[in-house]
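Quick one:
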Amino acid sequence: MLLATPAALSPRAAPALPDAALALLNGYQRDFPLVTRPFARLGRETGQSERAVLDRLAGWIADGTVSRVGPVFSPRRVGASTLAALRAPADALERVAALVSAHAEVNHNYAREHDWNLWFVVTAPDAVALARVLREIRRDTGCPVIALPLRAEYHIDLGFDLIHGRRAVSAAPQRVVQAVELSAAQTQLVAALQGGLPLVTRPFARLAQQAGLGEGAVLEQLHAWLDSGVLKRFGVVVRHHELGYRANAMCVWNVPDTAVDALGARLAAADGVNLCYRRERAGTDWPYNLYCMIHGHDRASVQARLDAIRQDCGLDGYPASVLFSTRRFKQCGARYAREAVHG
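Output:
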């Protein structure tokens, strides 16, 4: 979804949630039940009715607390994607950001404190389409753009514990592997899924109808994608800012290629690190190859956590930069298929 008004990342109190609501929001970011009536099971497991679960999720999606309920695909296992940055004149930032966000292939678009002041993620069905979108963004905005493709993931999107601030940690560095070849039926399923699970009593039956498959085949395919790593997780996808994590910083280092995996593994295991990965450098324009994201309730807490992480992980001696987010122009699920059936 494209935000009607760009969201400034300013203080906002976290919502106070009753136990059943918190259990639903926090407990099913991963391991969502892939069964015929998943919301009924969530109700039984959290002590509420199926209708109450559906109403809560619909309300959270409406107010922005939840982005969607659905899949998070592993980076570059389906289609092609990259993080990209753009250098826009300060007085034209909103206009340029609107041009970038207008592309359906752009699913995240943030302003950050740096000369490279607009950061966005592009996901497309294949590398040719990805290159086309980047060319169009350069042409339409008239601004320099750098692409920073993923090279290895150390910790990416395994969910976030809203109670203790902990999260699952990837066991070992994972190299970017070749994208899987999707059949026509699988492509239709991805198209149906990418906007999120429909909030109905039998959502997988609805998906099956849209994708031209049987309900059992849809469930079997989702289990297979999870088992093979094509899906990183399936569940409730929350927005940190709406839940009180009002500050976030992208922290980057230029470290030797021979040391990046060891340092990345240490960084990924550090408390407070929500994402950690290695990306391609962009020459002298952008010499950094090691990244992490830190979210916190305020800027001071993020900075304090970063200071401790630098020391604990042996990163103090490397060239680095810290880019705090200042505006959120777009945040939605990635679009892997050319035509989304719903969402």
